[in-house]
Design goal:
The structure is a homodimer of 218-residue chains.
Chain A: H1 15-24, E1 26-30, E2 35-37, E3 45-51, E4 54-59, E5 65-71, H2 79-86, E6 92-96, E7 100-106, H3 107-116, H4 118-144, H5 147-159, E8 164-165, H6 169-176, H7 180-192, E9 196-199, E10 202-205, H8 208-215
Antiparallel strand pairs in A: 1-7, 2-6, 3-7, 4-5, 4-6, 8-10, 9-10
Helix pairs in contact in A: 1-3, 3-4, 5-8, 6-7
The structure holds a DNA duplex (30 and 30 nucleotides).
Pfam families (chains A, B): cNMP_binding, HTH_Crp_2
Keywords (chains A, B): DNA-binding, Transcription, Transcription regulation
Domain HTH crp-type (chains A, B): 145-209
Chain lengths: 218, 218
Amino acid sequence: MSWASEIEGLNRIEPGARATLERDSRRVTVPAGTVVFGPGAQADNLIVVLRGAVRVQHVSESGRQIVLYRVNPGETCIMTTACLMAHEAYSAEGVTETEVDAVMVPRRTFDTMIGLSSDFRTFVFDAYAQRMTDLFLLIEDVAFQRMDIRLAQKLLELSKGAGSVGTTHQQLAAELGTAREVISRLLQEFRRRGLITSARGEIVLNDAAGLRNLAATD
Amino acid sequence: MSWASEIEGLNRIEPGARATLERDSRRVTVPAGTVVFGPGAQADNLIVVLRGAVRVQHVSESGRQIVLYRVNPGETCIMTTACLMAHEAYSAEGVTETEVDAVMVPRRTFDTMIGLSSDFRTFVFDAYAQRMTDLFLLIEDVAFQRMDIRLAQKLLELSKGAGSVGTTHQQLAAELGTAREVISRLLQEFRRRGLITSARGEIVLNDAAGLRNLAATD
DNA sequence: TATGTTTGGTGACTTGGTCACAGACGCGCG
DNA sequence: CGCGCGTCTGTGACCAAGTCACCAAACATA
């Protein structure tokens, strides 16, 4: 029940506010691959992720995709509240990448908490700031960065220190907002240079240092 | 003094909260071309624009620019508070496009107001939501939209119904995050098709309907 | 008028996106 | 097993966009 103590930014919240928060919110477990919010689906809760990750992505009419950011444990999907309040059309969707444990804070409780606790306000504004800067960095990347560098960075990010990444070219294209053919050609070049080896749905990072070196070429 | 009454979202604020807000905040006038915030400049105030416009843009190390959004009258530059709270490096800068009348709400007052007034909270969250959706649309544009369509849209937007736009090719490139040469070539094509005529620093929209038609080609 | 700066134009080249299609692999089913 | 079928990857041709180098016209002002 006492989930708030596990979360950076909420663990030292005022006792009264914390009681309200934990009493009024509901803990859920969602299987992998679930669309937790998206166009048409009105979200009436602030979602705080405890375990797993939610991928937030944009899908254009032409079918092309780009991943905007991920919501990791201890983070909150603040977009839902913002977009709800503004009654704007939701142009992004959230999909669970793994099984996810999360807490749903009802809109009403959220509003009460904001008035009640300055720690909670800080938590919420930090979340906004984090997403904003994520989006700023993404815009810079998409507008100005070469695709080979972005791909090298993404491979290192997705591998998380492990020596390989289990994704298809199509999935990588959706991550970076480009076309599959572009990924195929770049991976071929990486392979030629000995940076990776690859099989169907699997990319092995043979020379992570070399990739890091490429990724650092700003 | 009673500036809050002029602002959509603050005009029906609770009387007590409104008194606090107007007592503690300071009205300023800033000349055109002033950098009101940017890398290194710590902002300690929430800024609400009353008259004029602030352009928020990103400048990359390579010197290329892109305009992220504009803060118009009645709107607030919420980014400053967010980035201040997160203590993140500020990767964007704000420049006044015209002479600007604005209100500076100190950080302390901002925090008090958030706790005091639900109307003020709504105002703030609406502002966040607005910026977020702006950034989402920008990402979609940059990632997926053809440059000729983006340029046509931008010309119509900047002309604001008037028949012409007084900007250089370089400025348009900075708006859209591309290179001057690309703008020059596209404008040449527009000219060839009779959509515009142009002189040094001036573009005349001869066929606004034609441009709108092009811009609508999603 | 002379001179330097800003603005715009152009060609050659590289990178990235689109389209069409083909081969390779995995898997179920007769 | 052999056969289809869907998914994944490779490839060539072409177009769109960004980069680089350079030039010419317009303007500012001494």
